[in-house]
Amino acid sequence: MDFLGILNSTVGFVIDPVTIAFSLAALGLAVHFGFAGLLNMGMAGFMALGAYGYAIGILTFGLPWYIAAFLGPLAAIVFALILGIPTLRLRGDYLAIVTIAAAEIMRLLFLTSTFGPITGSADGLSGHNSGSFWADNPLPEGQYDFGPFRGTELDWWVRIVGFLILCVAVAIVWLLVNSPWGRVLKGIREDEDAVRSLGKNVFAYKMQALIIGGVLGALGGLVLAMGQNVNPNQYVTSITFYIWTALLLGGAATVFGPLAGAVIFWVIQAFIGLLMPALAAEGLLLGLSSIQAAQIKFILVGIALVLIVVFRPQGIFGNKKELTFVK
To answer: Which one is the CATH code of 3-326: 2.60.40, 3.30.160, 3.90.930, 1.10.3470?
Structure first.
């Protein structure tokens, strides 16, 4: 078993586009839950809008990639308004049920054959990056390896664009949550009736938080679409739970915690996903096949999420006093 090779491949996930995408989605969920107290279980729906908006803008409307990139966030704003107007007065589990159902409805709309000519139905969409996005790549053609961080010029172009989007998003969220607006939002999280008694429009603040977090989720889907094909089966409910795991791991009521949580989560996921099949191939897992051994990572993720909530609910970088549900 090539343990060093597995470790080397694992470290490469630190700046993988998937990690960047889930960092953005976890940051959006931090705005929803960590700062506004909205129990959103439908982040996968916002990510799907970001990915499909980008791909459809290029393939169907022939837009340049930098214009098509705005379609997903705009669609996320519309989706947040449609979702939030009738539901933001719900609390706790009721809001969670509605959001998870809304995300699944969104995925099924992309999956249905009715919109097949636009969305690609079950086959998804491909080829959206082969035009203007690749053409605008400033890097010379070739393979660029920096230790464990490897890839072609196209791989690095996706990473560069994704990292720039992430940096801008982090700066904006940090400024927002440290502004008077952010302090009102934290007050709503702790006791919205008290904030309402001070004359603040709680519904409006919640709607703003839902929109901002949804746009961040859409940007995560956009980065995913820049690095791979778009398929409705990528945006299943389990993706939302992965984002929640990353959020709770890093710290829900923080700005940088979700980023660290996403990196740690995907690095560990990659490590286990490579290590377990290798151990199975060596006959060290009681007769499990490599395919069966690869599924162990999902079991471990579930166990890890339970342990985090029980023993470290504020996350690695969070403050226990920040969240009411851990008092």
So the answer is: 1.10.3470
